[in-house]
Amino acid sequence: MIEVKTSKLSDGEFNRGVFATQDIPQGTIFHEAPVIPFPNEEHEHIEKTLLADYVFEYGEHHTAILLGYGMLFNHSYTPNAHYDLNFDNHTVDFYAHTDIAAGEEILINYNGEVENDDPLWFNEGKE
């Protein structure tokens, strides 16, 4: 249902994004990314690596590295997908927020909530 391809939105070293390989109707779960959680007090070690820009908050006391395609979705303040933390399954579950057409890049809001337009760390200091 999804694949990783070169993204025009990503200006990082890798320029990757996640794209739909078929139409995905609104509300459909299309990816369950397994997580490797770690206590927040260990995050200082991750901050010294490239992974710091890819981890997710995972509850109040943990941060998580997402496996699968979980850490490859690009950001948008008008996303076509959203995610929920699934503590029972130890996954982050990704859903279509709107209908997503085959070939379309799948975007999430890095703030965690679809309508949250708070500035993000990579935009700090930019106007």
TrEMBL record:
GO terms for molecular function: histone H3K37 methyltransferase activity. It holds the Pfam family SET. InterPro entries: SET7_MeTrfase (IPR009207), SET_dom (IPR001214), SET_dom_sf (IPR046341), SET_domain_protein (IPR053185). Residues 1-111 form the SET domain. PANTHER family: SET DOMAIN-CONTAINING PROTEIN 5 (PTHR47332). This is SET domain-containing protein. It comes from Paenibacillus endophyticus. The lineage of its organism: Bacteria, Bacillati, Bacillota, Bacilli, Bacillales.
